[in-house]
Amino acid sequence: MQRIDFGKIMAVLNSSYKTQPLAKETLEIWYRSLSDIDYTLAQKAVEKILLTSKFYPTIAEIRETCLSLIEGKKVTGLEAWGIFRKYINLYSTAENYEKLKQDHPDIYALVHAVGGRELLSGNADFVRPEFERMYNEHRDTLKKEKMLPAGFTQDVEKLRGTIYRQIAAGDEV
């Protein structure tokens, strides 16, 4: 998003919520935090926020709304369990993981991480609630990662590498 477009977004927010203009330093933080978002998507996110929230949004709320507009309705833990069971029941062992991976990569990632078909070898009534909990945690973790600005994770990894090298060299961090 260009600065001029960012200014339009902020003008809409400020006039809609009747707030004092943000300080120059605060605006710069907001711009850096939102500049990787497509302007049209940001407009739609702000429009949705205006229609559903009584309070001025945070950066995180705007990013989260953008993500929800892109991804649509998310599968719940109970729905994920039902999808997993359906794939196990409908497809042969050789086919089920590839089909699940293709159709539902988030569910596949969790199923693969926790043992796949072995999930059904025990008591399903016992396994289901644990599967739901793990799926919801996994989904929330992925959502938080997707909300980060482009390049943020790579920047942190570079910083982490630098700090580890300093520690290995015996330097103060």
Write the layout of secondary structure elements.
Layout: H1 3-17, H2 24-34, H3 39-52, H4 59-71, H5 77-90, H6 93-103, H7 105-113, H8 124-147, H9 152-168
Keywords, separated by commas or semicolons:
173 residues, 9 helices, mainly alpha, 2 domains
**Helix amount:** over 70%
| Quaternary structure classification | single chain
Overall morphology: flat
Number of domains: 2
Q: What string, H for helix and E for strand, traces the elements in order?
A: HHHHHHHHH
The low-pLDDT segments are none
**Count of helical segments?**
9
**Count of strand segments:** 0
Distance between the termini: 35 Å
Beta content: under 5%
What's the average pLDDT? 84
Radius of gyration: 22 Å
Classify the secondary structure makeup into a structural class. mainly alpha
Major β-sheet, in short?
Answer: none
Question: Could you please describe the fold and organization of this structure?
Answer:
This protein folds into two domains: 69 residues; 71 residues. α1 packs parallel to α3 and α5 crosses α8. The protein starts with a helix and ends in a 5-residue tail after the last helix. The longest helix is centred in the last third of the chain and has 24 residues. The chain is 74% helix and 0% strand. The radius of gyration is 22 Å and the shape is flat. 14% of the residues are buried. It is mostly helical. The protein contains nine helices and no strands.
